[in-house]
């Protein structure tokens, strides 16, 4: 009887970064890379940073550093290295030759985590597509680096499936996944259309990974989405109804988290998921106030929104986790239309958050004050359902109403 070894050898990796410009966040970026590596199931045993004007085009780091890394590999019995930037196929091939070890990059690790986390068929299609495209461009001419991956990080597809290795098979698999993705897109469009016909405003929760987006959705709507102290705990967007204190109903959507250097292939593949924010009426930006890198993270979120062409939308920034920091930390966000301080976990500041949402929605609505004759009373139902009915009074000539209504409804009144 054949015996299969299902346990993978523990991967021990050395983190490698290049510090280039003035604005130096290499250390912090490597801290994050360490978390990513851990999430992917490997251990970081050492880190190396090189100061260079620019990343070495052929080998990412210079010759001297390569020697240093070689020694560290030997010293720490490392099984591979992870570079903090996406390596070109040539860099990956050359480093593999020089170091004779498994060479990975930040992108590969992020893709690996996404593969492990994807739970819906939509998520799985998107991740596998991103993984295969990454792999495809590196197999051409540099197959050695890919075969050097062996098992572990970089070889696992969604659903514990091994990723395809054969170039021709990759090509046909990509074509198949692209077809499936088209169906997914169509499905999303239909859902979105239905939503916009329901006239319910959509609010997209965005933010850096681990900021507390899912926790907030759960707190507000009892959505039961996975919340965990981990990077990229949730990938698939979840939408839930929420009734605001005014009676108005809205849709809240939790989306995939952002991170610095989010892989290009991932953004491409996840476009239909990430696009949820593009069709939202309000962006709810959740920030982890307890994270020392809060400012960098906010910057990355706005940059990513721009990459996704999410622009000119009202933004509410919710400074989350204030139960950890206390109110004394200085928080501000000039890009936001409104800011609130909350604790999604301890349920603090939620009334203010809902009030901020109502304020913005009201700004987008039209004020109506009039008397509806009794035969037209049915229209008040419309107001009640889609707008905000503030006053209603039966008079001799009809029903007197004061309300805010969405523009789309106004015409019908
Ligand atoms: N102390 C404290 N912890 C919080 C708060 N909100 C969320 N957390 C914790 O932060 C961690 C991340 O929360 P999630 O809701 O999973 O974060 P997310 O933004 O959905 O993260 P991803 O899905 O990974 O992108 C979890 O351990 C939460 O329990 C808060 O207000 N206070
Ligand atoms: Mg989440």
Automatic annotation (TrEMBL):
Q: Where in the cell is it found?
A: Cytoplasm
Q: Note the CDD domains from the entry.
A: HflX
Q: Which residues fall in a coiled-coil region?
A: 160-194
* Principal subcellular localisation of the protein: cytoplasm
Every copy of the Hflx-type G domain together lies at 201-365
Q: Which UniProt keywords apply?
A: Coiled coil, Cytoplasm, GTP-binding, Magnesium, Metal-binding, Nucleotide-binding
Note the InterPro entries from the entry.
G_HFLX_dom, GTP-bd, GTP-bd_M, GTPase_HflX, GTPase_HflX_N, GTPase_HflX_N_sf, P-loop_NTPase, Small_GTP-bd
**UniProt keyword Metal-binding, yes or no:** yes
Q: Does the keyword Cytoplasm apply?
A: yes
The family line of this record is: Belongs to the TRAFAC class OBG-HflX-like GTPase superfamily. HflX GTPase family.
Summary of the function given for this chain in its UniProt record:
GTPase that associates with the 50S ribosomal subunit and may have a role during protein synthesis or ribosome biogenesis.
Q: Which NCBIfam families match?
A: GTP_HflX, small_GTP
Q: Describe its assembly.
A: Monomer. Associates with the 50S ribosomal subunit.
Q: What is this protein called?
A: GTPase HflX
* Source species taxonomy: Bacteria, Bacillati, Bacillota, Clostridia, Lachnospirales
Its gene?
hflX
